[in-house]
Amino acid sequence: MSEEKTKVSKESLKRALRIFKYVLPYRWKFSWGMFFLLLSSLTFMSFPGLIGRLMGGDDVSDSSIDQFFNLQNIDQVALLLIAAFTLQAFFSFMRIFLFADVTERAIAAIRQDTYAHLIKLPMAFFSSHRVGELNSRISNDISQLQDTFMTTLAEMVRQVITILIGVSLLFFYSVELTLVMLISLPVMMLSAFFFGKFIRTLSKKTQSTLADAQVVVDETLQAIQSVKSYANESYERNRYNLITEEVRKVAMKGAKWRGAFASFIILGLFGAIVLVIWYGVKLKNAGEIGMDELMSFILYSVFVGGSIGGVADIFGKIQKAIGSTESLFDLMDESPEEIDNAHAQTKVSDGAIVFNKVAFSYPSRQDKSVLNSVSFLVGSGQKIAVVGPSGAGKSTIASLLLRFYDASEGNIRIDGLDIEEYDLHDLRNAMALVPQEILLFGGSIRENIAYGKPRATQEEIELAAKKANALDFIKSFPDGFSTTVGERGIQLSGGQRQRVAIARAILKDPKILILDEATSSLDAESERIVQEALETLMEGRTSVIIAHRLSTIRKADKIVVLDNGIIREEGTHEELLKIENGVYRNLSELQIID
Question: Do 382 and 351 form a contact (C-beta atoms < 8 A)?
């Protein structure tokens, strides 16, 4: 993630305020929460005056507090304090409850919108961003916003009210003493501004480094089998330790500066309070101020000073929240795929495919052409195999058909229509992909098969499993279709995962089937069983078979041989074997095909 410093500008604040659109639907609850926060703050600010009057005793009868509340003795003052404490407790409860309700609803909506936007982003985006980084956006950044809405915002409003009302009351009690106390304010406020900018930069850097640490965790857990098979637990632990140590160093640097600033503020505030007490005692001795008013003034000075001191920390948290908001909206501002094409009227009917002089380079490697003027056609219901050496561009053809990427040059047509004119949802819904590496979801076998048709009945699911040669092994499990497959399908063997994926594709009943190295990682027996299931799946469908093992594609209607992104040869298995020094013939001889 970027560690670039985000400046506090009108534009950055405007972007950060976009987050409040999630609060808007609950504006009445939020307004009531703010109202109770105001009442709570006002009640809180009555304590110094009442406590000062209580400590002044019964010997003061013309006090401003007495005159305002028409009090006769300290018993009435004590009762008024108890009433104030009771109201404060009620107002605080209502404020916390209402803010929590609004916050949880808003945060849930933010999470939902972020996730919904994330899964609509194109494959090019996911090719250039790591999973851990994206997880950090959804977890850490949104959690930061949750803290802001739940506590920081309320504290900021409370501190502002405390300072404004407190300073007003200080002037009410004594203009001289207030001016003495306020001498130190300009220095502390300027310090808060400059320290806040610096602390914000460190906070954003901490978030960025923390996201990198999350990436390490995600990568390790996703590849835990490789980690353990290579006995690299120590290596991964050291890798994580190094990056978390970096997180600690950056966080401690921020903590050091926050601590230094807090110490500076505390020193300045308490120095000002000592000055106020010293000057106030002189005024009392001169008869210009009463004991109760002096005590109330000192308490209000402490309240105001504490609020000014707390502003620095709150300002730092708000700066951090602005940084999180900007990172989140950087993600939200990424252009999603146009899933729904309002102008699309046609759906895939037959599945006839035409590649017309297609060229393509991946966005991250624009200088390297993966496909160069590739042209071929597949009739409806035909089986075409795409073969060639590793890196020839075979899997790219599958990605272009599914419109994970768009061709740089040329076009792809299905049923005579450019694929860009189809609704993207309808286009992909007419296709099914069975990849080499099957990553099942962590639920049951039933849920994984039904992913191809979420509303499928149990009978449809069982029929699909039977056609995929999966019914027998599923029924051998004690829980049958309710068997949990584990994270990424780890509880099943490779052949079993492939057959579950084939059952999913059968249930989907696609017009176009894409098999991307679907049997290359299986042993001979598993390959035979899976191949039988694939033959059933391919019946009556337009099938594009991307193959490494040539033994699996001899029955294809057409074989296209790719090499360095160019079609070198095209024909049936028998025709291609007759080409002297042909690419296909050389590949077949290497694999010893009879």
Answer: no
- The domain total for the chain is 1
pLDDT for the residue numbered 2 = 39
Q: Are strands 542-546 and 558-563 parallel, antiparallel or unpaired?
A: unpaired
Whether 471 is in a domain gets the answer no
Q: Which residue has the tokens 């017309």?
A: 356
Question: Is 499 a domain residue?
Answer: no
The neighbour count for residue 54, using CB atoms within 10 Å, is: 18
Q: Residue 205 is part of a domain; what is its CATH number?
A: 1.20.1560.10
The count of other CB atoms within 10 Å of the CB of residue 521 is 16
Q: Is residue 488 part of a domain?
A: no
Interhelix angle 524-538/494-508, nearest 10 degrees: 0
Distance CA 298, CA 304 (A): 10
What is the residue range of 57's domain? 10-332
Tell me how far apart the alpha carbons of residues 430 and 55 are, in angstroms, rounded to a whole number. 82
**Amino acid identity at 125:** F
Q: How far is Cα 462 from Cα 507, in angstroms, rounded to an integer?
A: 10
Question: pTM surpassing 0.85?
Answer: no
Taking Cα atoms as reference points, which of 412, 401, 398, 400 lies closest to residue 516? 398
Q: Which pLDDT tens digit goes with each residue over 482-524?
A: 888 766 656 777 778 888 888 888 888 888 888 887 666 566 6
HEC assignment per residue over 508-539: HCCCEEEEECCCCCCCHHHHHHHHHHHHHHHC
pLDDT at residue 593 above 50?
A: no
Q: Does some domain include residue 230?
A: yes
Q: For residue range 457-467, what is the model confidence (pLDDT) as tens digits?
A: 888 888 888 88
Q: In this structure, how many other beta carbons lie within 10 angstroms of the beta carbon of residue 137?
A: 21
Residue type, 538: M
Whether the predicted pLDDT of 195 surpasses 50: yes
Q: Sort 138 into a burial class: Cβ within 10 Å, 0-12 / 13-18 / 19+.
A: middle
Please answer whether residues 123 and 428 qualify as being in contact, where contact means their C-beta atoms are separated by less than 8 angstroms: no
Q: Considering only CA atoms, which of 145, 153, 427, 180 is closest in space to residue 280?
A: 180
3-class secondary-structure state, position 353? strand
Whether residue 344 has pLDDT greater than 60? no
**Amino acid present at 310:** G
Report the distance separating Cα 461 and Cα 55, nearest Å: 80
